[in-house]
Fold this protein.
Amino acid sequence: MFKNRPLLDKDLLKKRKKLKKKLSKLNRQKYRNIDGNDDDEKLKNEKKNIINNEEKLLEDIVFNTNASILNRIDRNVDLISIDLDENPTNNVDNNDDNNLPNNLFIVDKHGDDRNIDFDDDDDDGHDKNVTDIVDDGHKQQREESMPVDDDDDRMAQRFKTELFEKLHGDGGKQNDQSKTKQVWFDDDDEIDVSIALDDCKKLPKSVKSQDKYRQYLERKFTEIYEPPNWAQSKTLENKRKSRQHKDQDTDDSDDDNEIQVEQIAYGNLKRPNQIHQLNKEFLRVKKCPHLNQSSRIRTPLNCLQFHRNSTVAMIGSSIGLIRLFQVDGKLNSIIQSIYFQGYRLTDARFISLNGREEILVGSDGMNTKCHGFCYYYDMLVGKILRIPLTKGGKHRYSLRKFQISPNNQFIAACDDNGNINLLSSTTKELISEMKINGNVNCLSFSPDSNYLIAHGEQTGGQAFIFDIRQSNKQCINRFNDLDTISATSMDLSPTGNLLAIGSNMGVINLYQFNDVIKQTNPKPIKSVMNLTTAITSVRFNHDGQLLLFASNQKNDSIRFLNTNSMTVYKNFPLFVGGNSGRTYGRIFDLDFSPHSGYASFVTGHGTGHLFRINEYSNY
């Protein structure tokens, strides 16, 4: 930082030493000539001149009229705090990082390491004008006068006052707003990570054993979530303050733009998009680097979800490996890898409830070694916990094609023989059991988490609606799904007005939710027949204007539907199929980011494809 700056002028230090020697000599001469009044008067005047010269020299050493005190500090000078309490009005909160210590003295590493003081023994005080330096970058002015006392403490106090005025330029007035101090200290926060995570076989790669457990948790929290509101405002305020110390010639517009971008980035998860109608024929979409480009492995991917409250996406594979990525559309850096060894993973979902953040994983039960239990990963603590899944003491079940309610309180999972298991997301215990005719293949919660819709095969083409607010979880309606023999996927729009049901014939029926909850034979407002194989994935975006659907039985079987015009966009998928020689492969899961800024899907090739939807400005 100070490499190219000139060293402290050694000539000034030499002059100061000469003045001190001369002053000491005059003091000795004074005591030898006690009877000589004229000589005594001359000695006093000469001593006064020496003191004035030394004061001026001291100011030249410490201050510079063309630069701040920070620009005078180099390799040879240290600023060290000392304890001076005579003037309580000039106290400064040294806990504030924006303030330098208010009591300083100079230490020359090459020479004198003593306090800057005056070694005369004269007890007589003399009035003189004192230069009070007020640093506005360009000028100095004399504002007040005070008597000069030869006492060391008095001179140190004067030096303290001048330095405080130099640094703050506020006449020594203390800032009214004092920094809030921490009122609670927990000894457990100071333990090392190696002690807190002693039951783990090995620590994460980015964690060192000597790191503090509190710092580890804070870093992990900020990786997953956006900073809290109080931290956002404090960060931006500190950046503005730090930029005030920059040179006046720099362009402030760049800094202002940077702060504005940061404010948008912090608020993009909460700020609603401006509602506008999408283009009916052309969707403005851009291909981004792969979601898992920072850490890609050649294994089929079958799980994908964007976190609802942060810019994090989760990708999972059937070998039991889950990876978290920071979504920015450019680097998409990997945050963490979680391995559920020996577990055949088919579904994974985020759970956010009461300050807890978890990843729940389930299996379809096809592998007997994975039947009868599930896992969840505590994202803040960093632990994997195994949960047994039994009912009636003997019967074991699995979390097949499970769904999390929008309020994160319930887990609904498909079971054998048309049974539906409803669990508490907090305790992972079975709350209730519901049943439909036939086999259940797909579930969907209403946006208010009051209703659960179930559909499947061998149901006679019927779908069932349960009111989970009731203690007996009663089925309040069943309706006939037009021309559907076997339902393979289903989703209800976040706005609560549209229900999409995909069948094994490649047809998607779109219904008004108000119709299906009241009528037994509702008429679909649209039947989409663009795909020819079973619809295995359907997903509405946050405002219900887009429907993304796909099939995992044929390469590149994915489409966007505009729900306003009920038309399928012709410009998607991009640059694949035909004679291009490019293919996405089979698509196993898909999702939108919280405000539809991104759409993504994962394939059997081990790739997470990411697209920027330019129709939406937010993440």
